[in-house]
Design goal:
This protein is about 40% helix and about 20% strand. By secondary structure, the protein is α+β, with helices and mostly antiparallel strands. The strands form 2 sheets. Strands 1, 2, 3, 4, 5, 8, 9, 10, 11 and 12 form a 10-stranded mixed sheet that branches. The protein is globular. It starts with a helix and ends with a helix. InterPro entries: ITPRIP-like, Mab-21_HhH/H2TH-like, MAB21L/cGLR.
Amino acid sequence: AKELVFHLVLNIRRRLLNSYFPVLSPPIGLGCSFKGWPPCVGVPVYRSLVPLKPPHGYIFHLEPDTAGGNPARIFCIRVGLQCTCNTEQQVKGMPCFLHPPEEETMGEQAHRLFCIRRNQAHRDLQTLCIDSYLNVEKTVSWFDENVEAVRRVLPQASQCWLKILHSRHCCTYQLGRGRQIIVATQIIFGVQQLSSDISMSSQTSGNPPALSSKWIVTCAVAEAKFFKHMARLAPTKCVHLKCLQAFAHLLEGSSLSIYAFKTVVMHLLTTAGPSGWDTKDFVPRTVEIMQYMYRCLEDKCLNHFFLGNENMPCNIILPPEYQMAEPLNLFQHLRHDSNAHARAMHELRELRLWLER
């Protein structure tokens, strides 16, 4: 699936080389499947995020919806013109769209070519925008259309079939051979916030927003970077991913989320360090994760890892508002829902009893 997404993006980039559509950056693997701890049931689904860069002469303005809290969790992405008068592309014969030269200065033929390019850029971007705002559904549909166009030149095309499952907020494909589905892959799109590891994504893990002009903040890139950082510091056979794989399997059908357990593991890795996560430490580390989670559920408080965390590794780049924010309690809802809290405590006790057998 990783190779499939890579070749899809590569071939679509080639196809759009002379266009003014957003530039597709290399895909970033997300979630448990790319980290080696997927639940061992059903057809594996590999999720990846494809970052979008603005085309030449344009810029993405991220406009926060402050009603969603601080830091903002919902953004609109406005596509605007950017001055390129002093860029290398200007030297290569691509004049600035924002400050176009006079026709007398350029010459009639060069000016005609410039107008064609400017009109093409406007036409291409309007395919993905509504009132100059990047639209999630249009972006997803545009990528699906390009997948349809390049599917026959993929390396996998000679041996496997590819099915496009149309969706509003992500691109989902099934790869199979004969009657068997081998793997499914899900692609979401992201726009980087400044130069940080935080992105605006086309889909959230919960219910997507009603308006397709809304893009949701995701820490998935920062999370992937965190686990890569810990892998470099950890022992050769570090068991933190094995622990997560075990919990991902055990939590199937439970109200307890693997995201909460993953947050616990990230907190433990930063506070105690990865040196104590060798293969022989699997059982004590699993117990430690359970104890930490039990305390968090009792207190109805589990802090978000990337907000207001003073123990953040220095190579994780966060926006200033994330660094200065007050910690965000992921279990805040349990303080207002006694039934949900009682169920979570019961399920955790049952899980602990199962592990102690």
